[in-house]
Design a protein that fits this description.
single chain; 293 residues; alpha/beta; Rossmann fold; 2 domains; five-stranded parallel β-sheet; five-stranded mixed β-sheet; 40% helix; elongated
Length: 293
């Protein structure tokens, strides 16, 4: 009996100590706010698909009580209560309140107007806005801390880094393939320097021909594209219906572009390359299969 009481006491003390340590943790979010929780978040609402993927990846899926209509991965996310679409204007604060969350994770830019509304009803929010792979690694670790899955989050980050390192060791062409990422064709839009796409292309062994542009999604001219002579034209599956080689060949002047002339046009899953979550490692692997073959 004494041994049992001692064991229970030690467990209780350990729990109290862990709760005390957690309560002292403060994390600065992407909006510059210092966010603290009194205990591990047990009821979480995610307002971005990337955050939803991250929460499930670190083992916090059972703690997720609400998501957006665009949170389609993993499959388990589909059964969670929907609180609206992706933009802030479509989110139902009333639905969020009804779910009684102790944490709402949102986008610092898209959902900025929701933060004061959640403050008014005493619901803690944490903003993310990753712009690089380094930011994604940080966000994964922060979400792990907030949900009590710090070790699992560290493992996810390590796995991503290891997979990307393995890609970089694969045999590659003598010269880095020059890539044009087509976001849209009319008007012609692409991915600029500060995007996951540009970084993923570089990690996969290629070079984004418009990496020098400071805008995320700049509009460019066809004349400038001709000058930059891409070896590959790539896009996401959400634009796949416009990326058939026979259709691109019908665009005036496009047959002279090296990528088109050599039939080097391909698409990859939009969700893995546009979302700042664990599947960015999948994006690097997918790009490497194209650029290093």
């Amino acid at each position: 009996m004494k041994k049992l009481l001692a064991s229970l006491l030690s467990v209780g003390m350990a729990f109290a100590i862990s709760m005390s340590v957690f309560a002292q943790q403060s994390i600065t979010d992407a909006s510059g706010r210092i966010v603290s929780l009194q205990k591990t978040a047990s009821r979480v609402v995610s307002l971005t698909p990337a955050v939803t993927e991250t929460l499930f990846a670190v083992g916090a899926g059972d703690q997720v009580v609400g998501v957006t209509e665009f949170c389609n991965y993993p499959a388990a996310a589909l059964s969670k209560t929907k609180v609206g679409g992706f933009s802030g204007a479509t989110i139902s604060v009333e639905q969020i309140v009804a779910l009684k969350p102790d944490l709402v994770i949102l986008s610092a830019s898209m959902h900025a107007k929701l933060i004061p509304l959640l403050d008014q009803v005493n619901i803690v929010s944490f903003a993310v806005e990753p712009a690089s792979f380094a930011d994604v690694y940080r966000d994964i670790q922060n979400l792990g801390k907030l949900t009590g899955h710090e070790k699992e989050a560290a493992a996810v980050v390590t796995n991503m880094k290891n997979r990307i390192a393995a890609v970089q060791k694969l045999p590659a062409p003598k010269s880095s393939p020059r890539v044009f990422w087509e976001l849209w064709d009319d008007p012609l839009m692409t991915a600029g320097g500060p995007t996951f796409i540009t970084e993923a292309i570089a990690l996969a062994g290629g070079t984004n021909v418009f990496a020098d542009l400071k805008e995320q999604w700049p509009q460019v001219s066809f004349e400038e594209l001709l000058i930059r002579k891409p070896d590959w034209i790539l896009s996401g599956t959400d634009h796949g219906d416009r990326m058939k080689l026979e259709d691109i060949l019908k665009r005036p002047g496009w047959a002279t572009i090296p990528a088109v002339k050599n039939g080097k046009v391909a698409v990859i899953d939009s969700d893995i390359v546009y979302r700042g979550g664990p599947r960015l490692a999948d994006a690097v692997e997918a790009l490497a299969k194209i650029l290093k073959k």
